[in-house]
Design goal:
Layout (H helix, E strand, L loop, with lengths): L2 H29 L3 H24 L3 H25 L3 H23 L15
Length: 127
């Protein structure tokens, strides 16, 4: 991937992170208008993120660990969003935005890492 494409990708992730920071709480409040549909959509999203988390947990390397941490942050955001949509808890609005921001920061750090990041060999398990 070219340097310009990587820079554009990093800039767009940063724009998304700023948009979530500014308007994420109000978007979450709008999701409470249709709690059943929002809950189903968040459940489907949860399944997809859990599949990505499973894939990243079995992968090898430093990048895989950062991606798995990012996926855990997104799972936490989805759980908090489901709590806010189905049973409006005041704490879950801020928790959702915070978890999303943490996930986006990890995504930015991963994208800003040098391309030749060293790989850690997978440990062998004894039986």
């Amino acid at each position: 991937m070219s340097t310009a494409a990587r820079a554009f990708e990093v800039a767009m992730v940063a724009v998304i992170a700023v948009a979530v920071l500014v308007g994420g709480a109000s978007l979450l409040v709008q999701l409470t208008r249709a709690p059943l549909v929002s809950g189903i959509c968040l459940g489907v999203l949860m399944v997809l993120v859990l599949a990505a988390l499973r894939r990243d947990l079995v992968a090898v390397g430093l990048g895989a660990r950062v991606r798995a941490s990012r996926d855990v942050a997104f799972v936490a955001a989805i759980v908090a969003a489901i709590c806010f949509v189905l049973a409006p808890a005041r704490w879950s609005n801020g928790a959702t935005v915070s978890a999303l921001e943490f996930g986006f920061v990890l995504e930015l750090l991963m994208r800003l890492a040098p391309a030749g990041t060293p790989q850690i060999p997978k440990e062998k398990t004894r039986m």
